[in-house]
C-alpha cells in the first residue's frame, strides 16, 4: 500500500512539475491524475506495466483507503476558518450573499444543461 500511495503522490508531483514548467492554466494534481489514468489504462492493456504498485489492485486499494479517510483532509481547512473568525464576522453577510447567489446560478446552469441534453437525446431517439 505504501508503494501505491507513493505512486499516486509521484504522479501528483510530476503533474505539478509539468504545470509549473510549462505555465499551464490548470492544477497540477489534475495533470497528475491524468497521468495516473494513463498508467492504469496501460497496465490493463499491456501486461508488462503490471509491476510494482500497478500490480493487482494496489492503486485501487490505496485510493479506497484515501477516500475512506477523506474527511480528515478537511481538518486543516476547518482550522483555517476558525483562525479567520474575525474576517467572517466582518464580511459574513457578503459571504453568505455570494454563496447563495452562486448556489442559485449553479442550480440554474445544471437545470439548463439537463434540459438541453434531454432535448438532444430525445431528438436522437426520434431520428433513429
The low-confidence runs, each spanning 5 or more residues with pLDDT under 50, are: none
Instruction: Summarize the main sheet.
Output: none
The run of helices and strands is HHHHH
Number of helices: 5
Number of strand elements: 0
β-strand amount? under 5%
Report the end-to-end length measured between terminal Cα atoms: 49 Å
Q: Determine the mean pLDDT.
A: 89
State the shape. extended
Radius of gyration computed on alpha carbons: 21 Å
Structural class: mainly alpha
Helix % is over 70%
Which helices and strands occur, and which strands form pairs?
Elements: H1 2-22, H2 28-45, H3 58-68, H4 75-83, H5 85-127
Helix pairs in contact: 1-2, 1-3
